[in-house]
Amino acid sequence: MEPRLQRRVQRYGWDLAAGDYEALWQAQLAGAQAGLLALASLAPGDKVLDLACGTGLVSLEAARTVGPLGQVLGIDLSGQMVEAAARRAARCGLVNMGFARMDGEALDVPDERFDAALCALGLMYMPEPGQALREMRRVLRPGGRLALAVWGERARCGWSAVFPIVDAEVSSDVCPLFFRLGQDGLLAGLCEKAGFHAVTQHRMEATLAYADADQACDAAFVGGPVALAWARFGQEVRERVRARYLEAIAPWREGRAYRVPAEFVLVSALR
Question: Quick one: CATH architecture of 3-155+175-208+262-270?
């Protein structure tokens, strides 16, 4: 997919997913997000960039950690995600943070502005993740910390069937090379190529727990990366896609519930 079109698909898709994202994914991603924050070693007074911040789940935790003397900027390509994050911050009474709609591959931020840069499960959607990493390095101060999380190997993520199932119904891939960054050493290598050092990587196993088929399907189609394609499907196509996805995750059904295996890759580095 042409990069400009891919960015547009991601922007409008996540605009559609914003209202359902937290309810469907907050608990599922909590372990990976906590692991990322631990790697970042944030301290009171730090200035933090949260790239592809979504509804602010990581941003808000970072803001609590850095305290009133610190500052957090959350950016996302989706305007609806950014607005949801700002509302969440206001409800929590956090004033040491802000949000902006911004392309992570072309940051409108001065050089050497931040002590830490975070990106929780956002790089997989970017046409040029290496460019995003170079931008994060540019805005980090010398010695600044990078912490990343991406989905792991395709074979270790039971929900991965959603992509070929949806791709069979559309004219182009919805998320081309989505699991590529989960391949062994690839993300760490991109960090080194972007100029980072002291790069570390480890894998984290997880289980995505859903109460029933409706919740499992909503997470995959309504509040996730294929939301734009799903919104354009007619009822017949939706029923076909849903049936195929439930067949794909059937090995992990437990009564009405589903416990689908997943994997994350966490990477840390220094500028």
Answer: 3-Layer(aba) Sandwich (3.40)
